[in-house]
Amino acid sequence: MEIKAGLSTTPQKANKTLKRLSQLMDLAVKLEMRGDNPLKGVDRYKTGSGGFHAWTEAEIARFLEVYLPGTPAFLSMTLMLYSGASRCDAVKLGWGNIRGGRLEYRRQKTRKNPEGILVSIPVHPFLAEALQAVPNGAFTFLQTEQGKSRTATGLGTAMRKWCDKAGLPLCSSHGLRKAICRRIAEAGGEAHEIMSVSGHITLAEAQRYCEDFGRKGLADSAIARLPHGAKGEQKLANHPPRFARKMDKPLKENGK
User: Fold this and answer.
1) Are residues 203 and 110 in the same domain?
2) How many angstroms separate the CA atoms of 169 and 65, rounded?
3) CA-wise closest residue to 143 among 109, 135, 102
4) Could you read off the pLDDT of 151-196 as tens digits, one per residue?
5) FRET pair for 162, CA 20 to 30 Å: which of 53, 169, 198, 227?
6) What does each C-alpha distance from 164 to 9, 20, 100, 168 come to in angstroms?
7) How many CA atoms lie within 13 Å of 170's alpha carbon, on the beta-carbon side?
């Protein structure tokens, strides 16, 4: 299928596009505009259970090489990376959300949380510096040049273009939200710390980041606990008496 092949470098986007097109075709069949849904049976790309790609440090650095401070791309990326806000929340953030050096907002309402989860985090110095380019009278941080608020869809579309121009086909706006969770996990942060920043509803969602990205740090600390140098090895060799029996006779070879 040409549409699927054209999006092969962005499997998540390809699967989402196929899903939406299939829904549209189902509607066309229901309205008797078509006799069948041509997308039925079209296999989706295997993407694993990780969902959207979390930006790596190299990808973040690449984006910052292409887009300098003061540009909409730089501000959008920085705001989402250092707040963990999703697109629908990021486009609503403004100076009214800064209180006492903290960024405070309620995540988009869901059926599980009709009031929305309250997120209150310190403003990171890098984000504070980026926000200096935003006029004090701006209604939202990411408003357009015409002073109008961006839509979540518009921000997603813009981020897609910015990432493609920077040669980052796997990166997306949602991947920035995952990137801050990755950073916290790699720094040894616990699931509850991730939840306090991301506003995740369940512990299992945040725990997944610890399992996926915290293993390297845990392995480092685990190996660091082992004894170092010859003295440490000698201590390990000092077995309890029952294992340190002196052998008076040499070992016999098998069959002799």
Assistant:
1) yes
2) 16
3) 135
4) 999 999 999 999 999 999 999 998 999 999 989 888 888 888 888 8
5) 198
6) 11, 22, 37, 5
7) 14
pTM, 2 dp: 0.67
Distances (CA, A) of 238 to 33, 136, 232, 241: 82, 69, 10, 9
3 state DSSP class of 163 = helix
Q: How many structural domains does the chain have?
A: 2
**Boundaries of domain holding 168:** 57-217
The two beta strands, 118-122 and 102-106, are antiparallel
Looking at the structure, tell me whether residues 115 and 199 fall in a common domain. yes
Phi, psi of 79 (to 5 degrees): -60, -45
SS (H, E, C) 198-249: HCCCCHHHHHHHHHHHCHHHHHHHHHHCCCCHHHHHHHHHCCCHHHCCCCCC
Rounded distance, CA 74 to CA 60, Å?
Answer: 11
CA dist 124 to 72, 82, 102, 205, 209, Å?
19, 7, 9, 24, 21
The answer to whether 93 and 105 are in contact (CB under 8 A) is yes
User: 170 in helix, strand or coil?
Assistant: coil
What is the CB neighbour count within 10 angstroms for residue 117?
18
